[in-house]
Amino acid sequence: MLELRSYLSDLAGQRRDEPGADLLSVMIVSTAERGDLIWDDGLSQSMEALTAGTGTTQALLNGMIEAFSGHPDQWRRV
Q1: What is the pLDDT along the chain (78 residues), one digit of tens a residue?
Q2: Stretch (H or E) spanning 19
């Protein structure tokens, strides 16, 4: 996670200086304009946006594998 945070920090700095048409640019520019978030909060929100859904996907895949392991005939149908 430290590598991701470092990468996002560098990228956010670039987007602050030269905003693009992407979510990170919008978050950084709007944060800078409003002044309502500190840099670390903006990075944390960016990390959350990037990693959102991974836990849900993991749980879904685990459940699917468990279900198919008990019903191999259903797996063959897929």
Answers
A1: 788 888 888 988 888 889 899 888 887 777 767 766 677 777 788 888 878 888 889 999 999 999 999 999 999 998
A2: none
Furthest-apart CA atoms within the chain: distance in Å? 58
The span from the CA of 37 to the CA of 31, in Å, is 6
Q: What is the model's pTM?
A: 0.57
Burial of 16 (0-12, 13-18, 19+ CB in 10 A): middle
Q: Do residues 15 and 25 touch, judged by C-beta distance below 8 A?
A: yes
Distance CA 8, CA 51 (A): 12
Cα 42 from Cα 70, distance rounded (Å):
44
